[in-house]
Amino acid sequence: MTDQEIIESIRQGDRDKAIRFLYKEFPKIRNLILKSGCNDVVAREVFNDSLLLLIEKVQQPQFELTSKLTTYLYGINRFMVKNELRKQNKTGYELEWSDTLILSETDLGYDTEKEERLNQLDRILNQLSEKCRKIFELFYFQKESMDKIAKTLNYSSVNSAKTQKYKCMEHAFELAKQHTTHQ
Amino acid sequence: MRLPLEQMERVAAYLSGRMTPEQRSRFESDLTMDSDLQDQLTFQKEMAQVIQRRALRAEIAAAGKSFGGSSGFSWNLFLGGLAVAVTSVAVYFLFIRDPQKASAQQTIASHQVNAADKEINPITDEVTTSDGEIQHSDVHLTQLTGRNVNGKPGLFTGLLPLVEQLTSTTVEASGEKAITRAETVDFKQLNFTPKGFREKIAAYLPFEGHISVTPELEEELYYATAKPLLTENANGANSEITVETWKGSKQLWSRKYSGMGGHDRRSGRKKETCLQIIDAEGNFIPGVKISYSYFGEARTAVSDSNGVIRFTLYSPIRTSVKLELPGGREALAEQVRFEPKRVVFMKVSYVTRGVILKWEDLSNYVTYPVDCGGYVDPLAVKVIRSAKFRNTFLATAAFQERLRQLQTMENGQTLLEVYIDHLNEPLYKVDSMVANLLDGDLKAIFERFSEQRIGGTAPVNQLEYAAWYREQRQQLHKDAYTEVPSKNSRQYNQKMMLELARFVAPCR
Lengths: 183, 508
Fold this sequence. Notes:
The structure holds two protein chains of two kinds. Chain A is built from ten helices and no strands. By secondary structure, chain A is mostly helical. Chain B is built from 18 helices and 13 strands. Chain B has a five-stranded mixed sheet with strand order 1-6-13-7-10, covered by helices on one side. In chain B, strands 9-8-11-12 form a four-stranded antiparallel sheet, with no helix packed on it. In chain B, strands 2-3 form a two-stranded antiparallel ribbon. In chain B, a hairpin with a 2-residue loop joins strand 8 and strand 9 (297-302). Chain B is flat, with a radius of gyration of 27 Å. The termini of chain B are far apart. Classes of the chains: A mainly alpha, B alpha+beta. At the A-B interface, helix 2, helix 3, helix 4, helix 7 and helix 8 of A face helix 1 and helix 3 of B.
């Protein structure tokens, strides 16, 4: 697959092929991460998170590729490893990564505070019921209409699906509020 | 704060691009004025991103499956599997106070295997999938019926009052069918909960009627329930703590071993071994402190939230293990064999705390008025008389009156801890709490205390004080003897009694 093909397929929602293709880099990147002093589990996490970041970047309409896509992926991984090591209070040697692209937080649009908030929201999502998660997924990820959601989830009417969504959202919002006021 | 439906709908419409250009420009101008609207926009945007990430993560994990590497591993599931396959069972009974009795106990092998089979059933708050992704699953109320719930003890004993709360609440679910409820829960087994506990928990409770277990919730619940249950005294002061141990097979260990990830412990001679402590129902007991001897060197360790203690060994050892359970109870298991790469299970069935000595036991050493009961641990009294508590009602003359009463009652120690756990409340309220736990004449006595309407003192950090009390009490018990664990329990007992006698305050 060429870079352009990968970008197209990600943008069109046909991610599976693209992800599989990019995953071919995993063994090499994994070795680099292991040599930087992280363990196997962390290596996979870092790689998955980097891939996620890459996909999110590519999905933005203003994204322009300035290097090869895989080079960019290596760059993101390097950045994420550094981040991870900082979190663990370790100073890893960057020697292994010497011929990799250096990306900064601004290059990536990576906002640590926002990431924290997103993690917090992820935890909040866990506190919600399965039903709420399902509604959110259909609405925000599959981008389906409330009519269709009501049908898929067997609600008696569109209104009751809407009320349910509203309740879920309100609950999540309140939980998020509580967390911010606690901090 | 309530979130207006209309505002939320507007934000959703804006984000999904379902607005006319006029609506859009109005929304954008409103946005500059209204900070609530801004908050809502950020929130929904980020929520959408989180949901998208979840789905993407799942896709990525699925694609990555074929690329080998170590997969994640669930400790809970492992133990579940392990328990099923436990083959050899050794039962050690020992009660510190009464070593002669211990030797009389027999092994009941087959029975124990069954118990382990049945009880360690992985109802878990956290499941690690084969992709190494941790998923939180919901614990449904229907799983909480009856007494034999599995899981972490703090969790489930803490949840029971919640179930009660739910069953008495009508939940409106907008055209949806109502929640199916747990059929019956034995509320007699309920523990009392500390002040503000329910309010705290309510925040974690989604309105659908089932409970998502989060680390925060678990921690709350643990602290809320890390105290002895009143039912522990059911069989009176003569009951025992019994400890049974058995060990897992090597094969099972290797399953766990390869899945741990991160640390390759296969190199070197040092090998890991682990001990899991469970109660009679198969619940994991966290916070148990063990002391054991490692080639003559006294070592201690504390069990984690899964009741697991891990340590390294060079070669198999055989040692006595002293257990200090949360709440000050103690037990001793003799001749426990630890081997590298093997799991040892300890089942603790306790009915009452182990080292509370009755007054008669002390009578050989000191003479006190006969009418002065001895059911309250003298070391506990020593702790609450320390300077730390001088600003609490424990230091008042009124409380001494109650203490004298408690000393004459069989479950005096447990009830004393009710007072210690509610230092933030006015004294009369705690009196009535205690009264509610009693009946007959004793109930009347505490009701009379409550009628005196004696208030509280300045608010204190209740959790901290309660924890301090437990820590100090344990420390005093530990200081009372030196050999840990002692091979000669009788000697230990004598020493203990002498030490206790020194601390005992006269009750007049």
